[in-house]
Amino acid sequence: MDKRLAIFIVHGIGDQKTGFSRDMQDNLKSNFKKALQHMGQGGLEGQDDALIFREGLWADITQKGQDTLKDRMFNDSDTSVDWIKARKFFVDYLGDAISYFKGKVSDIYSQYNAIQNRIEDQVQNLSSDTNPDQNTLFTVVSHSLGTVVLSDYLYDKREILESKHRLTFSNFFTLGSPIALYANRFYNHQSPSNPFSNFKPQKVKDPNGVWINLFDEDDIVGYPIRPVNTYCKNAVAADLNVSVGSLLTGWNPASHTGYWENEMVGKVIAEKLAIDWLRINKHDKKEKTLQRMKKYKERYNMPMA
To answer: Which of 10, 50, 148, 162 has the most CB atoms around it within 10 Å of its CB?
Structure first.
């Protein structure tokens, strides 16, 4: 039986009601087959079942409190504010970031712990469909604040992900990610030449894996990560500027939700999955894999080093 790939699609703020995960699954399935055809391997058996998907939802944990807060602030008879719709949008987006604060392990108010426990349960569910006798390559596709949630999870679980779940952290695709902003937590004012040197998010574990950060220049939530420090430049293979969204949203901050169905985003992710699948099932030898990776990076103008 062919080895399969585990894909964990993690939502960001407010994504859980929109079906974005299904859009991404369809996007990746279609582009995975196209990539294999482009590589001259379109006739191989097993490709229809090559990808195991699970959805990562967590924003409902913080939403209840935000809804209660909005109701109290905007339906109070003694107060009046303008721009209600915009304010509600801001409460949801900023509220999740504020709620997702790492308190003490014993802190009963810490939503960080509740969110991380939810992710752990979902990863356990994904691992139940993999081969228990061998490690399965684990690719994370995450969006918005979900990229931060998964970065923290992968760091916290770095020592037990393989031993407990039989998953090898292979690829990390971050979409519209604010991870770079969290470097400011580690700012060292006593080191003006290298003030963010202590910011070290978890690297991929698989030596054949990549971390690719995709962002739209009009998406004010998504930022490049590599420029933060030398560690990030080595950990992240590329910051790719992609154009996402529709005619109505592609030129403004509403592009933030446009990654899921975007053809270019799907191609970047699916082509790497195709390279992995051919390698682990021994359809490609090492030299061929290296050639494919070189062409892959060239095609999307990624740094070669």
So the answer is: 10
Q: Where are the domains of the chain?
A: 5-299
Per-residue pLDDT of the chain (305 residues; tens, 9 = 90+): 689 999 999 998 766 555 678 889 999 999 999 999 999 999 899 999 999 999 998 888 877 777 887 888 888 777 777 777 767 666 666 667 677 766 666 666 678 888 999 999 999 999 999 988 889 999 999 999 999 999 999 999 999 999 999 999 999 999 999 999 999 989 898 888 889 999 999 999 999 999 999 999 888 889 999 999 999 999 999 999 999 866 556 555 567 788 999 999 999 999 999 999 999 999 999 999 999 999 999 999 999 86
CA pair distance 258, 261, nearest whole angstrom: 7
Contact between 25 and 53 (Cβ < 8 Å): yes
Find residue 142's DSSP bridge partners. 10, 174
Each as own residue / partner, the long-range contacts of residues 243-247 (CB below 8 Å, 24 or more positions apart, any chain) are: 243/216, 244/216, 244/219, 245/216, 245/218
* pTM for the full predicted model: 0.90
* Class (C level, CATH) for 5-299: alpha beta
d(CA 33, CA 30): 6
